[in-house]
Design a protein that fits this description.
alpha/beta, single chain, 10 helices, 24% strand
């Protein structure tokens, strides 16, 4: 292996070593189901360790949800979605079919069990546990991404401009303070701004915004699809391979696992990592694990770079969307539609976000945009599942990252590598257990 593996807390981490024959599965492959950013990073970390890795995906590398996200390394975004403020806002948001949160009425009966779990996840004890787990995961994620960017030669794609969260009233600002206090407990830096300081951070804002919060440690990338493909090129340079295929079935025992492809052919592996995003729970169910994953359908429009001079990612939390300046355009998107993976897109939601953006940034040119919809795989407590299947140690789950797939991908790659190599985990994996439900 080449390149440095140093990071901010390297003294507490086990050094890389060549895997033993047992760990290699006596020459058998590690198969990764899913070519999104999670699967790509898992492949990179395993290939760096000298393991034999093949990624399977139905469309290609970083071609689906990981291609069109908001491009944020949201390391300060440690608050679970089921926090107190969001629970209070649900009735208001649901009243607006094009608002920050939408649930198609026909989908509500299927969604109800997940919503009940989501509501329960907001209880004080569970909220604190999820908050602590996410904070630890984010600390690891930042260290691992910075190292991976260096090793893969992709650090020039990193942008360290911070983020600006915006409030339209004193009441909205005050409602945010408990969340900022929670972040402060974990050492996350920020400062509240108004007046000239606010205008200086983003010229041309509508005067409707009376205050903001600037987070200097927030980072974005030049383009998430381009970053994913570049990290994959690095994984390939370490020996990782790709096979375009849809996976129909997964089966396992204590000695290994098998994939059945759509064409009926079989692939065997010592380990299978399921990182198939919003489809992952369907494969987990074949192994006896019923994981309550739901799909947050997110929408955006990417405008030409000339649409408006946005200096950093702008977060409109009261409206559930962000605006991100990319190398490839200006991305206006976000919001949540809890509607599963079968329903056709409702691009009226993209149009509604763009209309709001025009009001918030007077002078924004809305022409020439490209609309997109992606599937965020979300669990009720906002914490992903990282760990082995109930029936077999040969199948490892790595999914359910919700809005934070890009952010937590490198940390997930390290954790999966540690599991496969039998090393001590960098974080306590109990909060991420697939069996916690």
């Amino acid at each position: 292996m080449t390149g440095s593996t140093k990071s901010t807390d390297e003294g507490s981490r086990p050094a890389l070593r060549a895997p033993s024959n047992r760990e290699r599965g006596e020459g058998k492959d590690i198969a990764i189901v899913g070519g999104g950013i999670i699967g790509i990073c898992v492949a990179a970390f395993l290939a760096e360790a000298g393991l034999d890795v093949t990624v399977f995906d139905r469309t290609g590398i970083c071609e689906e949800t990981s291609s069109g996200n908001a491009a944020a390394f949201a390391f300060s975004d440690v608050l679970p979605l089921a926090h107190k403020g969001m629970i209070r806002q649900l009735p208001k948001w649901l009243a607006d079919p094009l608002g920050p949160l939408s649930i198609p009425p026909a989908y509500l009966p299927k969604l109800l069990p997940w919503l009940i779990r989501f509501w329960r996840a907001g209880a004080p004890g569970k909220y604190e546990a999820s908050l602590t787990a996410q904070a630890g995961m984010m600390k690891l994620a930042e260290a691992e991404w910075m190292d991976l960017l260096d090793r893969s030669g992709t650090r020039p794609m990193l942008r360290e401009d911070g983020s600006l969260e915006l409030y339209e009233s004193e009441a909205e600002f005050r409602a945010s303070l408990s969340g900022w206090a929670a972040r402060e407990r974990f050492g996350i830096g920020f400062r509240h701004v108004e007046g000239e300081n606010l205008a200086g951070l983003q010229p041309g804002l509508s005067p409707r915004f009376v205050k903001g919060t600037f987070v200097p440690g927030w980072k974005t990338v030049a383009d998430p699809k381009l970053l994913g493909k570049a990290v994959w090129a690095y994984a390939q340079s370490k020996g990782a391979r790709f096979e375009m295929a849809r996976i129909d079935r997964v089966a396992a025992n204590q000695d290994g696992a098998t994939l059945t492809l759509a064409d009926g052919s079989i692939r065997q592996a010592r380990y299978i990592v399921i990182a198939a995003g919003a489809w992952s729970h369907l494969l987990a169910r074949q192994l006896g694990d019923r994981i309550p994953l739901e799909t947050e359908r997110g929408y955006n429009t990417t405008l030409p770079t000339s649409a408006f001079d946005v200096t950093r990612q702008l977060i409109f939390s009261g409206h559930g969307f962000v605006i991100t300046p990319l190398e490839t355009g200006l991305r206006v998107g976000g919001a949540v539609e809890l509607g599963g993976i079968e329903r056709p897109p409702n691009f009226n939601r993209s149009k509604a976000l763009l209309q709001k953006a025009q009001k918030f940034l007077p002078g924004l040119d809305p022409s020439g945009g490209s609309e997109w919809m992606g599937f965020r795989p979300s669990l009720p407590d906002s914490v992903p599942v990282i760990g082995k299947a109930t029936r077999s140690r040969s199948v490892i789950y790595a999914f359910g990252h919700g809005h934070l797939g890009l952010t937590q991908a490198a940390a997930t790659g390290r954790l999966i590598r540690e599991f496969v190599l039998g090393q001590t985990s960098s974080v306590d994996l109990a909060p991420f257990s697939p069996q916690r439900f």
